[in-house]
């Protein structure tokens, strides 16, 4: 396919949306260059090494393997050409703060028995819920995720009309939907924890996203490991490396340490200037940088689609308080993926979306990749921990509050999991709202982008095509289909399709 032969395109930002778009455009014949602000590709899926510990800085749950297979399949490849997958068992472990503990195993029948042990009839309800979840997943992916519908008239389609009764039923929120199946609050939490990956909360996320339970229980949770490496490289870095390798095979040029300072429309194309004064003159531009940053900081005022009031009116996905810890000794009984959940998590979500402040009794996540991959630590006598607490974007996060909250979270982990690392930490790094804003130019320091509320779903998200500048396009988590690594891969396909159609 050479639809774009002779067309030069600069992609600003090397996150998953930008990498995906670059691959699709190069495959269509374009001359593609990716300009990445930071010293490595992958965007929020960056990584770093310190004192023999290797940390994934962002995504750590490999979900929706079918999306990755579809992406690589477009180019006649498969994920296993670049990395292999190890299915985790248990998928994750949950410590409830009332002292209860539960493993969620890879065996779906075993999960059913766990549900039945918490509530009479919950085993049958689990089967019914998953059947609906699988059906909604298929419906949503084929009609609303893989198929981009950026204009209202695109929704006047026979397949959409047929799906409408189901879609309308699922416009309520997730909390009400899950309550129709389960009374036990712990089962409700298990069915809704994946909303964090969508940047939402039970009360503001459409019930359509119950399809994430199909992703969790039927498709599984995996750990990617790079192929052909003498020193095993696992985690999302392996996925980034695989897509970059594919891009290089397709002819994409990657330029790192190249923060873009200006995008200006010219008669013969664009001027794209980096902070060091380097100038590029592509025919077209795709921005995978934060959408608001691109519009407000890189474009002239008359070429912006939205004003500050628009961006101030939006609901942003949470930011995060992150701890990267290198620890002496083991951290049993933590699993590779561990969730620590209060009996009532509503106050935590309220302090993210309704009354922004640091949560008093947080729900949080602990990743221990050293449980699966011994190469992320300097030797077998150490453990690698990544602690993530979802918090409201735009919070003040100075040194004093960080120290206080760090101490509170580690004490909470010791109290509720039995794992006290405070006297065994040999390496520590903190990352929060300010770093998301500085490193990724993220509006309000959101860790993810626009939340998946009903008013920010589908065509209500910012478009792939700029309405103000011909030849300027957008990709990534602010656009459709939304937040998360799989969604950003699909976003890249949508953006490339829009360019091909327009040319």
TrEMBL record:
Signal peptide: none annotated. InterPro entries: Amino_oxidase (IPR002937), Carotenoid/retinoid_OxRdtase (IPR014105), FAD/NAD-bd_sf (IPR036188). GO terms for molecular function: oxidoreductase activity. One of its GO terms (biological process) is carotenoid biosynthetic process. Pathway: Carotenoid biosynthesis. Residues 17-500 form the Amine oxidase domain. This is Phytoene desaturase family protein. The lineage of its organism: Archaea, Methanobacteriati, Methanobacteriota, Stenosarchaea group, Halobacteria.
């Amino acid at each position: 396919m050479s639809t774009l032969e002779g067309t030069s395109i600069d992609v600003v930002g090397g996150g998953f949306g930008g990498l995906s778009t670059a691959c699709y455009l190069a495959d269509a014949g374009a001359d593609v260059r990716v300009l990445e602000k930071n010293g490595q590709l992958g965007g929020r899926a960056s990584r770093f090494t310190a004192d023999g510990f290797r940390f994934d800085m962002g995504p750590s749950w490999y979900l929706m393997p079918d999306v990755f297979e579809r992406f690589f399949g477009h180019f006649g490849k498969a994920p296993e050409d670049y990395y292999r997958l190890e299915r985790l068992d248990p998928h994750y472990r949950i410590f409830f703060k009332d002292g209860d503990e539960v493993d969620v195993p890879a065996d779906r029948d075993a999960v059913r028995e766990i549900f039945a042990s918490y509530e009479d009839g919950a085993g049958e309800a689990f089967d019914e819920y998953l059947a609906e979840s699988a059906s909604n997943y298929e419906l949503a992916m084929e009609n609303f995720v893989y198929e981009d519908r950026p204009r209202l008239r695109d929704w006047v389609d026979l397949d959409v009309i047929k799906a409408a009764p189901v879609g309308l039923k699922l416009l309520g929120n997730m909390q009400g939907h899950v309550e129709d199946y389960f009374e036990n609050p712990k089962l409700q939490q298990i069915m809704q924890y994946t909303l964090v990956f969508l940047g939402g909360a039970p009360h503001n996320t459409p019930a359509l996203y119950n399809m994430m339970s199909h992703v969790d229980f039927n498709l599984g949770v995996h750990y990617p490991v790079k192929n052909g490496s003498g020193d095993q490289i696992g985690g999302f870095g392996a996925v980034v490396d695989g897509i970059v390798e594919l891009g290089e095979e397709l002819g994409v040029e990657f330029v790192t340490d190249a923060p873009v300072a200006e995008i200006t429309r010219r008669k013969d194309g664009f001027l794209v200037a980096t902070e060091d004064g380097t100038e590029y003159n592509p025919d077209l531009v795709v921005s995978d940088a934060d959408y608001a940053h691109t519009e407000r900081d890189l474009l002239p005022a008359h070429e912006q689609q939205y004003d500050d009031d628009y961006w101030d009116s939006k609901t942003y996905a949470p930011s995060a308080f992150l701890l990267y810890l290198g620890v002496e000794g083991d951290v049993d009984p933590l699993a590779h993926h561990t969730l620590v959940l209060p009996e009532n998590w509503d106050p935590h979500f309220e302090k993210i979306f309704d009354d922004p402040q640091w949560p008093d009794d947080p729900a949080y996540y602990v990743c221990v990749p050293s449980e699966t991959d011994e190469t992320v630590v300097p030797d077998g006598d150490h453990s690698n921990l990544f602690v993530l607490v979802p918090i409201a974007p735009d919070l003040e996060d100075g040194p004093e509050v960080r120290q206080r909250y760090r101490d509170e979270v580690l004490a909470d982990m010791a109290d509720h999991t039995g794992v006290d690392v405070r006297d065994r930490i040999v390496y520590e790094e903190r990352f929060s709202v300010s770093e998301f804003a500085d490193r990724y130019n993220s509006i309000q320091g959101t860790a993810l982008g626009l939340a998946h509320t009903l008013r920010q779903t589908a065509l209500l998200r910012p478009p792939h095509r700029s309405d103000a500048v011909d030849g300027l396009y957008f990709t990534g988590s602010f656009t459709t289909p939304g937040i998360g690594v799989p969604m950003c891969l699909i976003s890249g396909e949508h953006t490339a399709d829009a360019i091909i159609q327009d040319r």
